[in-house]
Every structure is written in C-alpha cells, then in structure tokens.
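in:
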C-alpha cells in the first residue's frame, strides 16, 4: 500500500511537466485523462496481481505454522506422507512403513484430511 501511495505521489509531481509537454493544438489525452489512465492501470495491477499473490502467501504461511505431528500433507514435489517430527524449518515425513524423509516446511503444498493416506 505504501508503494502505491508513493507511485501516485510521483505521478502527481509529474503533472506540471506533462502539462507543459503537451502542445496547444495537438489532439490527445488531457493531463487529467492521463492521471486517470495511470490510476486505473495501478488499480488493475493491484487487484489482478499483487492482492491475490499476497493472499496466497498469507495462506501458505498459516499452513506452515499450523503443521503438527500426525498431520497428512502433500509436498510441492507430489510426495504424500504423515508428519512424524516438526522443527523450526524442517519436518520429518513418513512416506511408507519405516521410510522417513526430511523436508523443508516451505515445500509443503497442502494439508490432507485425516485418513487420506489409507485410501491411496
């Protein structure tokens, strides 16, 4: 949000330069029209790109902080298993009987409902 305010402030500071750069007889967009165009472009960028990406990042951070022993998860590489140990940055994932893998928490893509691994 701070960067958007700075961008708008920068555009407003360019207003006198835009007004003097426009020729008197040349047809084109007025200064106010250009500002509205840039503001619309910024809003489109915010709602289509920045906001959804930050929402996904918050959801993934909440998923990583909520991982507990016994949870069933799928990694970004497609490995499914049950968590047997949780540390600050890593988890130990049991992928089969007596087969465990150490995986970074950030590699967890999704948490599965309990009992999903039995059905696979």
């Amino acid at each position: 949000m701070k960067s958007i305010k700075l961008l708008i402030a920068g555009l407003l500071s360019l207003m006198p330069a835009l007004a003097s750069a426009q020729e008197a007889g040349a047809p084109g967009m007025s200064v106010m029209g250009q500002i509205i165009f840039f503001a619309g472009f910024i809003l489109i960028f915010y709602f289509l790109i920045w906001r959804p990406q930050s929402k996904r990042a918050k959801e993934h951070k909440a998923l990583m902080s909520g991982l507990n022993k016994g949870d069933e998860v799928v990694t970004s590489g497609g490995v499914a298993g049950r968590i047997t140990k949780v540390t600050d940055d890593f988890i130990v994932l049991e992928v089969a009987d007596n087969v465990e893998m150490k995986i970074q928490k950030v590699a967890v893509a999704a948490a599965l409902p309990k009992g999903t691994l039995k059905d696979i």
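note: The radius of gyration is 25 Å.
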